[in-house]
Structure formats: structure tokens, C-alpha cells
Amino acid sequence: MIRPIIITNEHKAMQTFDGLKSIRLLANKLKMPGVIYWNKYGLLFPPGVHLHTLIGKGIKGKVYLKDESPSDEEIEEMHSKYMK
Q1: Residue 27, SS3?
Q2: HSE-up of 71 (CA within 13 Å, CB side)?
């Protein structure tokens, strides 16, 4: 099941570091997060920022095993349901 989720005001909570692109890309290849978030309070969530989370109704779909892949038509069908 897929649940569409939207979170607002994230951009007010944290900043990212744009430097060291080659190191960040290498970290991504090694399946490690290549992003560090911070704000003026360090790594803590800043006071006064209100995040709003909207969770949509679940969309049922076929479950695939690790070695299976959906067809392009199945992907397009789920995408159109998600966008509605």
C-alpha cells in the first residue's frame, strides 16, 4: 500500500551544505546519506517552526518480491492513482 504524504515548512527547519559534491556523491554510491542538516541551534529541531503533515488515503497495489519489477504500464497506473 502506498500512502501519499505531504509535509510543509520543511525548508524553514533545516539547511544543507552544498560543498564537497564529489564526497557526497561517493557516499551515495556507498549507500550512505550524503547530506548533513543543521540550523542555528545545531542539529536540534529549531523552536517556532511548525511542520504540517498531510497523509492521504492508502492506495492498494501489487506487492513485488525482491527480484521482480513492475511493468511500465503498472507504474503509470499507480502514478495516476497517486496523483489523483
Answers
A1: helix
A2: 3
Cell numbers found for residue 81: 492513482
Query: Cα dihedral sign for 39, 43, 48, 52?
Result: positive
Model pLDDT for residues 14-67, shown as the tens digit of each residue = 776 777 888 888 888 998 877 666 667 776 777 788 889 999 888 888 888 888
Specify which residues 16 forms β-bridges with: 37
Q: What is the pTM of this model?
A: 0.50
Residue 9, all three cell numbers: 515548512
User: Could you identify the residue written with the cell 525482491?
Assistant: 66
Cell numbers that stand for 37 in this block: 542538516
